[in-house]
Every structure is written in structure tokens, then in C-alpha cells.
Design brief:
The complex is a heterodimer. Chain A has 1 helix and 11 strands. Chain B is mainly beta. In chain B, the strands form 2 sheets. In chain B, strands 2, 4, 5, 9, 10 and 11 form a 6-stranded mixed sheet that branches. In chain B, strands 1-3-8-7-6 form a 5-stranded antiparallel sheet, with no helix packed on it. In chain B, a hairpin with a 2-residue loop joins strand 6 and strand 7. Chains A and B meet through strand 5, strand 9 and strand 10 of A and strand 4, strand 5, strand 9 and strand 10 of B.
């Protein structure tokens, strides 16, 4: 069974469209994340949720809206897509780093390659 | 803000050689982790070293941590072509609020047969 799964793997869409990426983890983790990896492979944290509650919201345009219906799911909805949104988006999960930071690793999904044309 | 910086950005070696990658970070940390990313795939956790540890081994991997210099190194011994990937360090910073994993820019390792 895949620990962290995200869909779709590839997404090609036109500027101005709205799209969603879904993520699910079956590891029983408290915390889920969205990272954006640009063309230079730099991984930047976008959002972090703990038990369905948003705890980290880095400087991300408000066109990006995460939603966590339960602690096993964290979806990412993007409105009015722009060319600069093209990147690979990774979902990840871990135990709550506040309390278990000493021994906590993150598990990543396979990524969603978003191409905006 | 970016926490870790890997060095070198790219490394090309022959099979059987050792590969050393370095990571520097800026703030105090709980732990430092190394991840591998194969082309087109997600990141996979390799090894975690706590802030009170200086060295850790796992198979062909050896990680060192120098908190006074805020730096870490990852050594892969007897490299194989299958080790070709990008390697990232990630830190869990110590702060008063919520924590997250902050990644460096990565080192791209190419191991030629």
C-alpha cells in the first residue's frame, strides 16, 4: 500500500483555469504538508496542517487554498492558474514535529507535475 | 526562508568511488535529515541525526553533524550507478512555534559505471 498518494501525477492546463490536487496518507500521521519544487529543484514549504488545522502558511498567493477534510487528507486547490505556477507539487506527512521532532521523518508522495500553458 | 545549503550543487564520480556532500544551515536545530530524490520521483528519507549526535552510520551512508559550525556531511561509500539522484538535507529548526522540515537546494550526484 502506498503511504502517501497524490493525484494526478501529471496535470497540464491552460492559464486562468482552476485545478485541484488530492493527497491522502495512510500512516496515521498528524501533520501533512504541501511543498513546491521549482525547475531548479528547490523545495519550498507552502502549507502545513496539523490535525486538520492550518499551522504554517508561507508566502503563497491566496489563489492557493489547501483543504483538509480529515487528518488523512490534504488537498490543494489552485484558482486562476498562472504560468509561474508550473512546478512539481509534493504532498508529505509526518508525526507532529513539535513533540516528536527528535525522531521524525517525512514521507513524500510521488509528486504532481503541473504545467500551465 | 531557506535553511539548508548543500555543496556541491553537482557531483560526478565513477562507480566504486566515495561521494561526499555537505550541508550548512542557519538556525539551531532539533535534528538534520538527508533525503534522496530519484529523477521524477518523490523524496525518500535516508538518515536522521539528532542535534546531540556527531556521527551516524546506515549501510554505506555516513552522516556527520557539527552544530558549532552548523554543518553536516553525507558520505556515500563505494558508490553505485543506482546512487545517481539528488540529495537534500533538511532541518527541523528549534523555535517557539510549530516546526516544519526546511530543505536545502540539493546536490545532484551522477555515478557513472
Amino acid at each position: 500500500d502506498t503511504a502517501v498518494s497524490q493525484t494526478p501525477k501529471y496535470l497540464v492546463t491552460q492559464m486562468g483555469n482552476d485545478k485541484s490536487i488530492k493527497c491522502e496518507q495512510n500512516l496515521g500521521h498528524d501533520t501533512m504538508y504541501w511543498y513546491k519544487q521549482d525547475s531548479k529543484k528547490f523545495l519550498k514549504i507552502m502549507f502545513s496542517y496539523n490535525n486538520k488545522e492550518l499551522i504554517i502558511n508561507e508566502t503563497v498567493p491566496n489563489r492557493f487554498s489547501p483543504k483538509s477534510p480529515d487528518k488523512a487528507h490534504l488537498n490543494l486547490h489552485i484558482n486562476s492558474l498562472e504560468l509561474g505556477d508550473s512546478a512539481v507539487y509534493f504532498c508529505a506527512s509526518s508525526q507532529d514535529l513539535r513533540f516528536r521532532g527528535v525522531n521524525t521523518e517525512a514521507f513524500f508522495g510521488q509528486g504532481t507535475r503541473l504545467t500551465v500553458v | 526562508s531557506q535553511q539548508g545549503e548543500e555543496d556541491p550543487q553537482a557531483l560526478s564520480i565513477q562507480e566504486g568511488e566515495n561521494a561526499t556532500m555537505n550541508c550548512s544551515y542557519k538556525t539551531s536545530i532539533n535534528n538534520l535529515q538527508w533525503y534522496r530524490q530519484n529523477s521524477g520521483r518523490g523524496l525518500v528519507h535516508l538518515i536522521l541525526i539528532r542535534s546531540n549526535e556527531r556521527e551516524k552510520h546506515s549501510g554505506r551512508l555516513r552522516v556527520t553533524l557539527d552544530t558549532s559550525k552548523k554543518s553536516s556531511s553525507l558520505l556515500i561509500t563505494a558508490s553505485r550507478a543506482a546512487d545517481t539522484a539528488s540529495y537534500f538535507c533538511a532541518t527541523v529548526p528549534v523555535n517557539s512555534g510549530y516546526s516544519t522540515l526546511t530543505f536545502g537546494k540539493g546536490t545532484m550526484l551522477l555515478v557513472s559505471p
